[in-house]
Amino acid sequence: MTARNETSLSLDAGGTETLIEVRNASVTFDMDRGRSKVMDDVTMDIHREEILGIVGESGSGKSMFASALMDAVVDPGVLTGDVIYHPPDGDSFSVLDLDDEELKEFRWEEISMVFQGAMDSFNPTMSIGGHFEETLRAHDYNVADGMDHGRQLLADLYLDPDRVLDSYPHELSGGMQQRALIALSLLLKPNVLVMDEPTAALDLLMQRSITSLLANLHEEYGITMIFITHDLPLVADLADRLAVMYAFEFIEVGPCYDILKDAAHPYTRALLKAVPNLSSALEEMEPIEGDSPDPVDVPSGCSYHVRCPLADEQCRSTDPGFERVSDGHEAACFYWEDAREEITYTLSDREQEVTFDERR
Ligand SMILES: Nc1ncnc2c1ncn2[C@@H]1O[C@H](COP(=O)(O)OP(=O)(O)OP(=O)(O)O)[C@@H](O)[C@H]1O
């Protein structure tokens, strides 16, 4: 892989090791109705061994960010900027400099991805065991050793390895398929697992059980996890940090605990207000008014200004940079202090459990 003239480890101000640096990354699609900018100058560090939750409304650019991490933006999308990977045991390199062969290696062995629909990821005519063996062979791994690790992963995910490996995808329930897919993604011992709405098609109980199994895997193998979802309470249970996306860029980033307890960006606060809360009456839930922007025509200044109750002339004309809220907590808003006073929300019982959990 292409080495860069950089130190192999970067430390941010807080002394946290950075595993992936995304620098000024943008993605554009040229369409008949104009240029669509679906990722807008995004800069973000992913820390080693953290669980990062990425949340935002549908269409805000979460999946595009995941694709950019692996240089997997689909044609004719154009990714610019840089994605620098700092492997735990080697020289740093730019993911965008990798050739096809290097990318294939990188995508399974360094960063692995789990998508929402397990059924679409498995070949229906091949047993689960066949998928595991094929993956090991394609990457020149020892099949016997690799299958031992695969069995262990399946057992870690509370699946019966023999039964699952002998089964065809349709013979397993949705929850079992999704767990088998997570085990397959971890087969080559990647450093990073990116999950894009991995539990969206499952019932609430299975979602919770998978997030708790992921927490165990994280503990056992020290994997860096990126969990993408529109379901804020779900990821709050799992994540160390939250990054909130709005209109193709991040607008607030910080420790999960801090953001849930007292979010700074008006959009995040509105999102927390809109979250279904089983313990409160339906009329207390407030959906966010207005629509999210069209990527061909993103509003000037702060892209949230058209929906924001605090917006003024400055917000309409000037794009706010990130402002420091507290250690590791930043928000892209001129008026985050006012937002904290003027936009109120109540945490659900579940979120209160998370925010009062002292580990976070
Ligand atoms: N192949 C494509 N061509 C053009 N635009 C695209 C393409 N794929 C995605 N987009 C646009 O990019 C934007 C971001 O999409 P993305 O899938 O990243 O959003 P998301 O936040 O992951 O949404 P969801 O939660 O619904 O999956 C959307 O406006 C979408 O329409």
TrEMBL record:
InterPro entries: AAA+_ATPase (IPR003593), ABC_Ni/Peptide_Import (IPR050388), ABC_transporter-like_ATP-bd (IPR003439), ABC_transporter-like_CS (IPR017871), Oligopep_ABC_C (IPR013563), P-loop_NTPase (IPR027417). Keywords: ATP-binding, Cell inner membrane, Cell membrane, Membrane, Nucleotide-binding, Translocase, Transport. PROSITE patterns: ABC_TRANSPORTER_1 (PS00211), ABC_TRANSPORTER_2 (PS50893). It is a peripheral membrane protein. PANTHER family: ATPASE AAA-TYPE CORE DOMAIN-CONTAINING PROTEIN, OLIGOPEPTIDE TRANSPORT ATP-BINDING PROTEIN APPD. NCBIfam families: oligo_HPY. This is ABC transporter ATP-binding protein. The lineage of its organism: Archaea, Methanobacteriati, Methanobacteriota, Stenosarchaea group, Halobacteria.
